[in-house]
Amino acid sequence: MTIENRRSVAGAAVLRGDITTALRRALLEELAANGYGRLSIEAVARRAGVAKTAVYRRWNAKLDMVLEVVTEVAGRKLSLPDTGSLRGDLRLVLQILAEALRHPLASQIIPDLLAETGRDPDIAAALDRARRTVQDEVGVRLINRAIERGELPADTDADLAVDLVVGPLYWRLAIARLPLTPDDLSKLADATLAALSAET
Amino acid sequence: MTIENRRSVAGAAVLRGDITTALRRALLEELAANGYGRLSIEAVARRAGVAKTAVYRRWNAKLDMVLEVVTEVAGRKLSLPDTGSLRGDLRLVLQILAEALRHPLASQIIPDLLAETGRDPDIAAALDRARRTVQDEVGVRLINRAIERGELPADTDADLAVDLVVGPLYWRLAIARLPLTPDDLSKLADATLAALSAET
Fold it and tell me: Does A92 lie in the same domain as A146?
């Protein structure tokens, strides 16, 4: 396929009404590149190759665009199959979280938005919904399964369990930004298993 | 002391050459209120009650100011007395970290700067120094003491140990922003002790 052909395919996609998709992608790229504070509707429109009016037909302000993207991510359920044991489930959820935390959304955009939560209650609420999705998935599903299997006591503190599962990985990948080998992940799963068994 | 008197004391402090201190404080307040992206030298000078030229006599750009503040925080050593046991040391370091993480510097400014690290290698380096201070204090000092006491094996992975100690607390206070009771802190210390003992 020649460059000219590819251009016309992209053009056709935009003409077919994929402007919203193009704008969403442009928003994520702009957020990662320049941050929420410097984000402008003009830059998003330019990156998507559309007029500024195309943005304002869809969203009232940049905050509306950002909240929609965050809420969409919050809505996506973490897929967490039952491996039959708490250790297996832990290993799997740590792997899934490690993938998610290596995405630019975690390392670039989430810190931007976290910084905004103190300034904007709407951003705080949207991020809180996203966080609660992780909290429910890890806390309720993973811990409840372990309780049903008799691997953890029934009065296990689900909030604390989430801190123990998500915290070390988040610190390692999103804050310290140190590498994490498959061997590290195994050690982390063992350590987390011991922590969960000890917390009550 | 009347308001007039207090004003004249503050005025005298500025006259005595405390402009740098006033500017540093103003910078922290501006960062917390508006974020790095929207931070302007003008606003910092206005908040400190000095002319813009006073800023430019001290720093070349807003980045220089911010890096100095971060580096200064990195330089401050966490005070961590030896309690005689790993459990005691853990409980104490978790308490100290919990205090630090409730400070606006952690909840507002650090997320801003983390978001900038992908865009600016100087910010990345300054934050990395700050992070390594925590890493050394927790990893090297706390873990080495426990190894010397025979509470942990000599080949304990110090990086992973820091993830296990700092991560859950960071997630709880800086990301999830849920309350943490003294009882939670106790449970967390027990869980972390079990995790550290299991990780090797």
Answer: yes
